[in-house]
Structures are given as structure tokens and as C-alpha cells.
Amino acid sequence: MEVNRMRRWKSLRMALKEKVLLGGLSYQEVADRSGASRAAIYRLIRNRDVSLATVERLMKLFGLEIIEAEDDTSRKQGK
Fold this sequence. Notes:
By secondary structure, the protein is mainly alpha-helical.
């Protein structure tokens, strides 16, 4: 189960990084629009630790949401 959580976090981080890097905004513009600091945006891009609040702000800015999916174990067990 821990592996699935790590995979999900990596997917979320990648989605956020993609939005920041391909969105056509500077780090400062992303920071200003999201309410996160420029340093936090930089840390995200560099795969450093960021707070949950930063993740939530960026998700809101980019219109992303988390959809809970069944894990492989539940499907195999018929749950």
C-alpha cells in the first residue's frame, strides 16, 4: 500500500511540474496567482519537499483534483 501512495504522489508531483513548466508562466507568476512562494514553486520543480498547502494551492490554480481509485489489491480480491 505504501508503494501505491508513493506512486500517486510522484504522479501528482509530475502533473504539477508539467503545469508549471508548460503553462507559459514564470515561477513568480505561478506563485503570485497561487498564493505560494516562489521558493516553494522552485522546490517543487527541483523535486524537493513542499508543504501540503503549496500542493493544494497549485492544484486549485491549475484545476486539478485527486480522484481516489481502487488499488490493485482490492481489484484482485474482488472488493
